[in-house]
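Hi everyone, sorry if this is the wrong subforum. Our group has a chain we'd like a structural model of before ordering constructs, and none of us has done structure prediction before. Sequence below.
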Amino acid sequence: MVVFLWTALDFRIILKASMKNREKLHLGAKPAPGDLAFVQGYVNYISWVRQKTDINQPEAVKTWLVRHGLLSPAATLAGRETQTAFLLCESLRSLLGTNSGAPLNPDAIRRLNRLVKRCRLAVIFGSDGTAVLHSSARGAEKALGRILAEVINATMDGNWQRLKICNNQNCRWVFFDGSKNRSGRWCSMAVCGARAKASSYRKRQRHQM
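Answer:
Right subforum, don't worry. Here is the predicted structure as tokens:
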């Protein structure tokens, strides 16, 4: 059995980690390529924020949006806008579940369609003739529209189906499945995969007794 002994110095090093390194934590060991990593980081981060009742949730959501250039530092985030950010995260997680074998949730689809309308997403042509998804909303809804646009782009280029939720019920981290046959089940084979195998082994042993 391996025992990890954490010292005060270890915790100071973690707390002093750069913003870039903290963002990598939200992407985990299997980050998505290109702008899809942007969506992956959002879902993992907002999921974490929802579980933290001891922090200022609107401020935490705003921090992520500002850090990624989606919201002005001077902007304020109301409770309703925070709940909209949570709703988008929850709906995307439900949609991602289908990539891991879960049935499609019609309610999640309806919520996402309502969010698309609320964020005023539309296709526009740029000066170079390229068609892009653009949100004509303002503030937080415009920021969330950018995230939805990346999701739509990923569904069209085929990468969305590779974004999955870890099969470990104690983890449920969003990861990118880069395997050739798209059979990935865990965000980390060394951690969640090993735990799943150990759990299966213990169950087999109990049945044999």
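For your construct planning: The radius of gyration is 19 Å. The chain is about 55% helix and 10% strand.
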